[in-house]
Amino acid sequence: MALTSLLMCADAQAVQVLSQILQDLGICVEACGTPRLATARISEQKFDAILIDCHDEPAAIKLMTHLRESSNNKNAIAIAMVDGGNQIRDIFDNGANFILYKPISAERAGNSMRAARGLMQRERRTQRRVPTQAQASISYADVQEADARLVDLGESGLAMQAERRLPPSCKVYFQFALPENRSQVRLAGEVMWQDSSGKVGIRFVNVPQASQRILKGWLEANLSRQPAVNPEPEISEAAAEDPTVTLSAGLGLLTVSAADRRERSRRGCSLSAEVYRADHKVPNRCRLSDVSTGGCYVETHLPFPAGTTLEIVVRTENLKLRIYGKVKSMHPGFGMGVQFNLDTPEQQKQVKQLIACAAGAEREVTP
């Protein structure tokens, strides 16, 4: 289930910037322009985060008070948007967890919202975990079938011990058998945290139905044997001892140095596509799950080997995009990472149009 947010702000430019940031982080956003409408929505629906413009500070504080008294959202993350005229201490005292300073900067707000998302996910997580010592085979980025050991397992994620540091926020593809069950579990997850000991926290993002049944049955059988304990925090305590990582904004969200970040940021998407091997006319119907100026990820149960030259065709209501690339990594049963060929201005234009489609704007983009 996706994270959800309510944005109470009458500033159209700020709403546009924050809505784009939230959507890029996989957080559904609902915008409303007045405290009255926000009060009604807080009473009606549960949200993971509430963003409140404090232009009218008394009204904003009244809204935060209502938020903390509501049955649906008393534990939601409250993010206050402030300027130099606001009384920050009063805003914190009335329930704000986090502050965004106006005017809203895309870069600054993006960093802040990534930190806030960590708290939202931590608050959302309620499933208990079962300790296990199962061996797993993992694939990610350009690494194929590396060894790892599961530490614990739940319905929405797991912790594992990896032999090497993983790229931050990357997708990881698992295959493992659980104790007392010979059936293979295959699933995909996203790195949420990792510490200096090699322990990694994973949130599931794609679990096939067959694997869901295996996981559910195994967890039900083993949870009944476990004493009730609080779930492990999203950030390992050992992370605080790692001098190579820092804590962002005092929120306990693990961050990494700029050198470890992806060279080109990816935009999550869900675009239907036809993929052709070079010199083949048979289409393979797939789905693009993320895209950047340098490449994309193609979800398919039958990925092509690394080095395969591809033609990717994406059709929209107004466009037919034809993009060429080469398979850089493949994950059997899940998909493949593709690096684009950008040898001509026309190829560059096609990629920009694809990114525009991924952003929900089906329009031509001039290079």
Keywords:
single chain, 367 residues, alpha+beta, Rossmann fold, Thrombin, subunit H, 3 domains, six-stranded antiparallel beta barrel, six-stranded antiparallel barrel, 7 helices, globular
Structure in words:
The protein has 367 residues and is an alpha+beta fold. It folds into three domains: 3-124, Rossmann fold (3-Layer(aba) Sandwich), CATH 3.40.50; 130-260, Thrombin, subunit H (Beta Barrel); 267-358, predicted glycosyltransferase like domains (Thrombin, subunit H, Beta Barrel). It is 25% helix and 36% strand. The protein has seven helices and 20 strands. The chain has helices spanning 12-24, 35-44, 57-69, 88-93, 106-124, 209-223, 345-358; strands at residues 3-8, 27-32, 49-53, 77-82, 98-101, 130-131, 135-140, 143-153, 157-162, 171-177, 184-194, 199-206, 246-248, 253-255, 267-277, 284-291, 295-299, 309-315, 320-331, 335-340. The strands form four sheets. It has a six-stranded antiparallel β-barrel with strand order 7-8-9-12-11-10. A six-stranded antiparallel beta barrel has the order 15-16-17-20-19-18. A five-stranded parallel sheet has the order 2-1-3-4-5, with helices on both faces.
Our count of helices gives: 7
Known CATH architecture of the largest domain: Beta Barrel
Averaged pLDDT, please? 78
Q: Which residues sit in consecutive blocks of at least 5 with pLDDT less than 50?
A: 228-264, 361-367
